[in-house]
Amino acid sequence: MGIIQKQASKTTLISFVGMGFAAITRLAMPIVLHPAQIGLIGLLDLFSGYFVMIFNFGYNLILNKLFPKYRDDKNGHSGFLVLGLFLSFLGIFIGIGVYYFIEDYLLSNQSNHDGAELIRPFAFLIPLLFIFRILFLNIDGYVRMLMNTIVGTFLESFLTKILLFITLVLFAKSVFDFDYFIYAYSFLLALPGVVIVIYAFKKTKKITLPKSTIFEKKNNFSSLVLFGVISGASASIILYTDTFMLYKMIPINPEAVIGVYLTMLFAANLINIPSRNLNKISAVLIAESWKTNDLKNIQDIYTKSCVNLLIIGIYLFVIGWACLDPVLSFMNPEYEIGKYVFFFLGLSKVVELGTGVNTMIIETSEKYRLNTYFNIALIFLVVGLNYIFIKEYGIVGAASTSFIAVSLINITKAIVLNKSYN
To answer: In degrees rounded to 5, what are phi and psi of residue 145?
Structure first.
C-alpha cells in the first residue's frame, strides 16, 4: 500500500486545496450569477460530457487490461501513447459528426419558453470541449499507468479550479461580460487536455507505433473497445441523465432548476474526493496484482478502502449537513429547495465510499464485462425512477433516485465479489 498511500495522500491534498477554491467559487456563483446562468454552464458540461464518455473508445479499459503486459520504458511501452492518441482522434472525428446530426434534439426542451435560447449562442463550444476532454481522459489514463496520478489531478482538480476562481472574480468586477466568462470557462476545461498530451510525450522516452501483438486475438482488443464504448455510453447516461431529464421535463425555467441542482451536486461531490484519488492509483496496483494473481493484495486494498472511505464519508456528510442551513441563508432563496437534494446525493456518495474500490476490482478482472452490465442495469433504474420521481418531486426526486439506484448497484457488486472471489 506504500505507493497508494503516498500518491493518494498527495493527490487528495491537491484535490482538497483545489476543491477549496472550487467551493468558494461555487458558493460565490449564486451571488454573482443567476441560477439560469449556472444552469447554462452545467449544460455545456452535460452535452460535451456525453460525447467524452462515449467516444473515448474504451482506452482506459484497454490500459487496465493490457498495459501491465507491455510496460517497458525502453521501448516506449509498445506504442500505447500513440494508440491512445489514435483512438482519441478517431472518437473525436466520429463524435463531431454525431453531434451535428443530433444537435437540435439535444438543445431543445419542453418548457413554455424558448429553453434553447440560452445555450444556442454557445453551442459551437460543445464539440471544442469534448475534443480536449477526450484527450485529457485518455492520455491522463496513460500517464496514470506510468505511476503518476499527481499531474492529472493537479491540472484538473487544482489549476483549473484556481483559474476559474480568478475568472469569476474578474467577472464580478465587470472586467468582462458573461459571454467572455463562458469562453474563459470553456478554455479552462480544455487546458488540461493540451498540457497532459505534452507531458505524456515528455515522459515517454521512445515514441513508437503500437506493437502488433497488442491486437492479437488472445488480448481481446476489439472486445475491449466494444465494451469500453458500451460502458462509456452507459456511464455517461448514468452520470448526466438526472440533469438531462430535468432539462427536458421541468416545464418552467429548467436552466434555473439545473443551476440549483448542480450547486447541490457539487457540494455532495466534495464527500467523494478521497475515493477519486484512491481509485486512480488503486486501479494500477490492482491490475498489477491480477497479473500475478495476488488476491491477498487485492483483498487488502479492498478491505482498507471500504473501512477508511466509509469513515471519511460519514464524517464529511455529517459536517456538510450541519453546515448546509447556515450556507443556504447567505444564498439566493431559490436555492433553499436544494436542501434535500444535498441530503440524498450526499447519502449516495457515502454508499459509494463504503463499498470501496469494488468497481476497480471488477474492471481489472476477467469479469470486467460485469461493470458494463451493472451500468446497463443502472440506466434502467435511473431513467425509470427519474421519470416517476421528477414528475412527482422535481429535483428532490432526481436526487432520491440517485441514492436508491447507487445503493442497489453497489450492494450487488459487493455480493458478486464475495461470490466470485470470496
So the answer is: -70, -15
Cell numbers 425509470 label which residue? Answer: 384
Return d(Cα 219, Cα 147) in angstroms, integer. Answer: 23
Whether residue 82 contacts residue 254, with contact meaning beta carbons closer than 8 Å, is answered with no
Examine the pLDDT at 170 and tell me if it is beyond 70. yes
Which of 308, 411, 290 has its CA nearest to residue 353?
308
CA proximity to 190, closest of 36, 51, 48, 57: 48
CA 148 to CA 124: how far, in whole Å? 34
Tens digits of residue pLDDT in 126-161: 999 999 999 999 999 898 888 777 888 888 888 898
236 within 8 A of 183, measured Cβ to Cβ: no
CA distance 247 to 18: 29
Residue 138 is placed in which grid cell? Answer: 485518455
Handedness of CA 172, 175, 181, 186 (dihedral sign): negative
Q: Alpha-carbon distance 254 to 245, whole Å? A: 10
Q: Which amino acid is at 121?
A: P
**C-alpha grid cell for residue 74?**
525502453
CA-atom Rg of the chain in angstroms: 21
pTM to 2 decimal places: 0.75
Residue 228 CA, distance from chain mean position: 15
Rounded mean pLDDT, 374-393: 87
Residue type, 368: Y
* Runs of H (alpha helix) within 250-294: 254-269, 273-291
Residues in the chain: 422
Give the mean pLDDT of 166-179: 92
